[in-house]
Design goal:
Elements lengths: L4 E6 L7 E4 L13 E6 L2 E11 L12 E2 L8 H13 L4 H8 L12 E7 L3 H11 L4 H12 L3 E3 H8 L3 H10 L2 E7 L20 H15 L5 E6 L5 H14 L3 E5 L2 H4 L2 H10 L3 E4 L5 H13 L4 E4 L11 E6 L18 H12 L3 E5 L4 H8 L4 E5 L10 E6 H8 L7 H13 L2 E6 L5 E6 L16 E3 L4 E3 L6 E2 L15 E6 L1 H11 L5 E4 L9 H10 L5 E4 L12 E8 L1 H4 L6 H13 L10 E6 L5 H8 L2 H15 L6 E9 L2 H18 L5 E2 L3 E8 L2 E10 L3 H13 L7 E6 L7
Parallel strand pairs: 9-14, 9-15, 10-12, 10-13, 11-12, 13-14, 16-26, 17-24, 17-25, 23-24, 25-26
Antiparallel strand pairs: 1-2, 1-4, 3-4, 3-5, 6-7, 6-8, 18-22, 19-20, 20-21, 27-30, 27-31, 28-30, 29-30
Helix pairs in contact: 1-2, 3-4, 4-5, 7-8, 19-20, 22-23
The structure holds adenosine-5'-diphosphate and zinc ion.
The site of adenosine-5'-diphosphate (ADP) has 15 residues, from helix 8.
GO cellular component, one term: primosome complex
GO molecular function: 3'-5' DNA helicase activity; ATP binding; ATP hydrolysis activity; DNA binding; zinc ion binding
Protein name: Replication restart protein PriA
């Protein structure tokens, strides 16, 4: 008999965990982390068992009504993490638990069963029976012959196929008592039917070995240390991750590996799979409910030792965790921004490492400012990989002044002359090119020639993008589409000539084909990858040289390894650079470094052409030399000047509502009250419209605050909840350490 009382964290935001008694008949099935149904003020409510007591200090404790999940999904470690996330990111715990625990684990899931056939009698008897049936029933003898050759059991479907008969034959034989059909759970792991060639560990170079040794020491000492692994693209960081994983597996432990969402679809996974095939559980958003259920429980039971996934995988219940790896730790996709909790998976990973006393590796070619800052303060241990592993070297970067190109072309041109000649040269040599542009569509905007207004979405504060293939103007914020595009101005109403402006990836592809009719192109952006699997398909096509040029948005910038790519063209990075956001310079430097890193990863030296009108911009100069340290010095000095992160912490408070003026007023009231509660060291900026004032018919206002650490802010937010009731219809969004000051 376990304890009589369970502490249940309820699925309603306003409630602390409550005591419930455990009925005797449920005693067996209730453990830490079980999802249960309990009565709450006459209603049914679900909640998680998060503790036990012998008795409750309260009178009239109600009983748990029933068990809702077939196996507990929550572990004590993960629950502890959830509590921290709730506090740190000022989000109610139930909302955090919703984020952490996939919906497939919130219901009773029966494992998927598959039919197998077993012998019910000895082989001799079976053989005799087969002999007696031969000539009388062809179907039955065929089944028995297959069964005689099979091992312990055979898949029913396989048996039927081999025997060339139908289920009725098997049923008849089962009735005769010579075989039986049983149902066994099938492992739904998506790896099951793939074949991988196992790769061997590489012999590490000096820098790699040093980094690995440092990490291994901490694994053995079960010591929490953050290892910032700063290695240029292609320097062999992934190889270090894999060898560190190997060490953990040798010691019987488990590993958590986080990768950016984008590389989950591509080659990175294959490399891990080829080395560790059956030990790995992959968590990505395209898993079916059953697959997710299996992956989660396999990790929890220690059947899978390695959890590999994007952002939310940081909460995966890895058994006997000994190491955490965050690849490309600077990647913005680790930060959840559109919904609370606005957690950063890298930061949660670091915290998890400290809770579970294990080392954490943060790897990147362009570490985030905050991580490098922590390393400079000595909080993180820094390992640097300064040369490319294997035989390749870093590409040469040339910046082309596009103003001169426009002069020469007597107008706008997408490609500089030098870039075109280099693309042609690559094609002739049988090498490949990647062209990067951060905008999709054909034209990025459509403008009225008489009044100068852009055609905007009716529900959003956003210029609409022209897509030529669909002959439509689309809003990239809400998906609204106008087809065909208007022939008179929606703003001034005059039937004027509408002018299309701005270049997107769709136009780049067409323009290139017009110039080189025999060039084979592929395009990878949000438009060409809508269907499940299209991503992988396009990448595979490029990898097998089905195209000479790959054109794409961020999707092509990161983590890919194509040995034949020797030229990368960045068509225009001016917009990213001038984006009104405190991270714009950092983002641009990272992006250029990452995309450049795709060139010359094999035998041939790579080349990068950077087209820009801002050739004197310091960031472009730094990107040209790919000097991360110089970039860091420059950028951290700016952050120091303004006391911006990482020197101080930042929070964003955003309010949205359906009425423009009232939303602004409400947020101003909130800000005034907050200001009165906060200590003086806080800097609170004024309320301003968000980067997009209107999205899907809602108006967004925001303000920022900076402080030493944000504890006083968290306390004040709690108090404010009681002081100011925000009416229904408004949504308050709090973001701790926001990634963007724009939206
Ligand atoms: P990164 O993750 O830093 O971009 P990778 O681990 O992908 O670098 O390594 C780049 C290439 O170099 C890969 O093809 C990898 O197999 C190879 N490589 C890595 N380490 C070594 C080594 N010690 N010796 C030879 N080749 C290596
Ligand atoms: Zn819209």
């Amino acid at each position: 008999m376990k304890n009589a009382i369970a502490l249940v964290a309820l699925d309603t935001p306003l409630q602390e965990a409550l005591d419930y008694s455990i009925p005797a008949e449920l005693n067996e099935s209730i453990e830490f982390g079980t999802l249960v149904e309990v009565p709450l003020r006459g209603r049914k409510c679900s909640g998680w068992v998060i503790g036990f007591k012998e008795k409750s200090q309260f009178k009239g404790v109600k009983a748990i009504a029933k068990v809702l999940s077939s196996e507990p999904a929550l572990t004590e470690e993960v629950y502890k993490l959830a509590e921290w996330v709730a506090r740190y990111y000022v989000t109610p715990l139930p909302k955090v638990l919703k984020t952490i625990i996939p919906s497939s684990l919130r219901k009773i899931t029966k494992p998927k069963l598959i039919s197998f056939v077993q012998k019910a009698v000895s082989k001799e008897e079976l053989r005799d029976l087969a002999a007696s049936l031969r000539g009388k029933s062809k179907a039955k003898t065929a089944v028995l012959d297959v069964l005689l050759l099979a091992g312990k059991e055979i898949l029913l479907s396989e048996l039927l196929e081999k025997a060339g008969t139908a289920k009725a034959t098997v049923d008849a034989l089962e009735k005769m008592g010579c075989l039986k059909v049983i149902k066994l759970p099938m492992d739904r792991s998506p790896l099951k039917d793939e074949e991988f060639f196992k790769t061997k560990p590489k012999v590490l170079n000096g820098e790699q070995l040093q980094a690995l040794n440092n990490i291994t020491q901490d694994i053995d000492a079960a010591k929490f240390t953050v290892h910032l692994l700063h290695g240029i693209t292609g320097s062999g960081k992934t190889e270090i991750y894999m060898q560190a994983i190997e060490k953990v597996l040798e010691r019987g432990g488990g590993v958590l590996v986080l990768v950016p969402e984008i590389s989950l679809t591509a080659q990175a996974i294959d490399r891990f799979k080829s080395r560790f095939s059956e030990q790995i559980a992959i968590l990505h958003h395209r898993l079916s409910d059953g697959e997710r259920f299996d992956a989660w429980h396999n990790l929890k039971k220690g059947k899978s030792k390695i959890a590999l996934g994007a952002r939310s995988a940081v909460f995966a219940p890895v058994k006997n965790l000994k190491l955490i790896i965050v690849d490309e730790e600077h990647e913005p996709s680790y930060k959840q921004t559109d919904e609370m909790p606005c957690y950063h998976a890298r930061d949660v990973a670091v915290l998890r490492g400290s809770f579970e006393k294990v080392p954490v590796i943060l790897g990147s070619a362009t570490p985030s400012l905050e991580s490098y800052y922590n390393a400079s303060l000595g909080k993180y241990s820094l390992s640097t990989l300064s040369v490319r592993a294997g035989k390749s070297s870093l590409p040469e970067v040339t910046v082309i002044d596009m103003r001169k190109e426009y002069e020469r072309a007597k107008g706008y041109t997408i490609f500089s002359e030098i870039l075109l000649s280099k693309i042609r040269e690559r094609k002739e040599k049988g090498e490949q090119t990647i062209l990067f542009l951060n905008r999709r569509g054909f034209h990025t905007s459509c403008m009225c020639q008489s009044c100068g207004a852009f055609v905007k979405c009716k529900s959003c504060d956003q210029a609409m993008t022209y897509h030529k293939k669909e002959l439509s103007l689309n809003c990239h914020l809400c998906g609204f589409s106008l087809s065909p595009p208007p022939t008179s101005c929606p703003s001034c109403g005059r039937p004027s000539e509408m002018k299309f402006k701005g270049v997107g990836t769709e136009q780049v592809e067409r323009a290139l084909k017009a110039l080189f009719p025999d060039i084979r192109t592929l395009r990878i952006d949000a438009d060409t990858t809508r269907h499940k699997g299209s991503h992988e398909k396009l990448f595979k096509e490029f990898a097998t040289h089905k195209a000479d040029v790959l054109i794409g948005t961020q999707m092509v910038a990161k983590g890919l390894h194509f040995p034949l790519v020797t030229l990368v063209g960045v068509l225009n990075c001016d917009q990213t650079l001038q984006f009104p956001d405190f991270k714009a310079q950092e983002t641009t430097f990272q992006l250029i470094t990452q995309v450049s890193g795709r060139a010359g990863r094999s035998f041939h030296r790579g080349e990068v052409i950077l087209q820009s009108c801002l050739v004197d911009h310091p960031i472009l100069k730094l990107a040209q030399t790919q000097d991360f340290k110089a970039f860091y010095q420059e950028e951290i000095a700016i952050r120091e000047m303004f006391s911006f992160p990482p020197l101080r912490s930042m929070a964003k408070v955003r309010l949205s509502g359906t009425d423009d003026r009232k939303t602004e007023e409400m947020l101003n009231r909130y800000r005034d009250l907050l200001l009165a509660l906060l200590p003086k060291e806080y800097t609170v900026m004024p309320v301003a419209p968000s980067g997009h004032l209107k999205v899907k018919d809602r108006y967004y206002y925001q303000f920022f605050l900076l402080g030493p650490q944000l504890n006083a802010f968290r306390e004040s937010v709690k108090k404010l909840k009681e002081m100011l009731e925000i009416p229904t219809g408004y949504r308050l969004h709090l973001d701790i350490n926001p990634y963007s000051t724009y939206f």
